[in-house]
Every structure is written in C-alpha cells, then in structure tokens.
Amino acid sequence: MRRTVLLAAMALMGFINMGIAQDISTDDAGSPWQFRLRGIVVTPDESADIEAIGGDASISTAVVPELDISYFFNENWSLELILATTKHDVEAVDTQVGDIDLGHVWLLPPTLTGQYHFTGGDFVPYLGAGLNLTLFYGVDEGPVADDVDYDTAVGYALQGGFDFMLNDKWFLNVDVKKLFLNTDATVNATTALGATVVADVDINPWIFGFGFGVKL
After folding, report:
1. Domains of the chain, start order
2. pTM of the prediction?
3. Residue 16 CB contacts under 8 Å (≥ 6 apart), including other chains
4. Where is the signal peptide (predicted)?
C-alpha cells in the first residue's frame, strides 16, 4: 500500500510540474483562485469480507454541502482541494447471526485532484484524478457491538464535470467523483457474540454534486 500511494503521489507531482511547465500566465485571466459550493449526494458502492460470521456491509447514502478550493496554474491545469464531511449508518447484513446494526460513523475525506479544463467558451468541461485521505470519527457502535474501530484510509479519486459561466466571475457547476476507498473495521462484539470480528470493507462511493462557483 505504501508503495502504491508513493507512486500515485509521484504521478500527481508530475502532473503539477507539467502544468507549471506550460508557462502560460494567469495574469490575463485575473486571480488563479476559484471557489465552489456544492450540494452533494454520497452513495457508497460497498462490499465487505467479514471474518468468522460472513455476510456483507450496508452503508447509507448521505446528502451534505461540499466546499472546494481550486488553484489554476494556467487556463487549463489546476489543483482542487475538496472538503466535506458525511455521516453514514452502517449495518452488517446476511451474516450467520443475522443482520447487525453497527450504528453510524462520520467520514472526513479531504481529496486533492489535478484537473484539466477544456476551455473555449461558456461551457467548460474538465477531468481530474488524485488522492484521498479518509478519517473516521464520531463512531456510534449501535446496540449490539461494544466498540467499532475503523482504520484511516488512503485511496484514489477520479473526477469529471463542467462549469457553465454566467458571467466573467460567477458560474454553475455539475460534478461527479468516484473514490476508491477501503478500510479495515474491527467490531468488538464480546458481550453479544463472545468474539471480536474483523472486516475488510470497500466503501468506494460515487459523489454527485451540483452548485455554483466564483472566480476571485
């Protein structure tokens, strides 16, 4: 995993250097900073390998606001930092002991993507790829487990979308992201089941967003 993340980080740095090497100044376009505020729907595409008791995972959809901050090296290449936090209900389903309510957990998944923007009019589509770091906090273990622990996760992100310029400053935005996100969950169910169960969980959410943005 460490080698994979290192290679991905090196690729992202190469992407940044390529944007800088274009040597196209943003002076004519004004400030290189751009901000978007979106409403997003986070829909996990989940699956799990649960030791001892088998079964699968069910993770709820969340609807939350998202803020992102972009820095443009030139009119085509940019970096975007994506900020949001989501709350998800978690359940182990179809196990040998039935469905188990594992309460809820909050996810904080800051994501950094490099983007290429296709310019030439008011309609500005873009593609992006980058890295995601997901922190799990505010865990409520539910009525069965004594404790649930989620490992911090590092994954990849793919992105596509478009801006539609309303004027030189304000624009509308539609955005779709796919995060490739895996975590190990440790469920201490000693009181109810007499065991601690470990699960390898793929969350892999789709993130659909719509909002507006401003160029400073």
Report:
1. 2-23+34-215 (2.40.160.20)
2. 0.85
3. 73, 79, 114
4. 1-21
Nearest Cα neighbor of 82 from 113, 117, 126 is 113
| Residue 21 CB-density burial (10 A; 0-12 exposed, 13-18 middle, 19+ buried) | exposed
- Length of the chain equals 216
Per-residue burial over 170-183, b if 16 or more Cβ lie within 10 Å, else e, is ebebebebebebbb
Number of H helices, E strands in the chain: 2, 15
pLDDT one-digit tens code per residue, 70-83: 999 999 999 999 99
What is the edge-to-edge ordering of all strands in the sheet holding 182-189?
Answer: 47-50, 195-202, 182-189, 147-150
Question: CA–CA separation, 29 vs 83, rounded Å?
Answer: 25
End-to-end Cα, the chain, rounded Å:
38
Q: What is the dihedral of CA 53, 138, 158, 168, to 10 degrees?
A: 160
Query: For residue 148, what are the contacts with CB-CB under 8 A and spacing of at least 6?
Result: 90, 102, 103, 105, 139, 141, 142, 185, 186, 187, 188
pLDDT of 38 strictly over 90:
yes
pLDDT tens string 122-171: 999 999 999 999 999 999 999 999 999 999 999 999 999 999 999 999 99
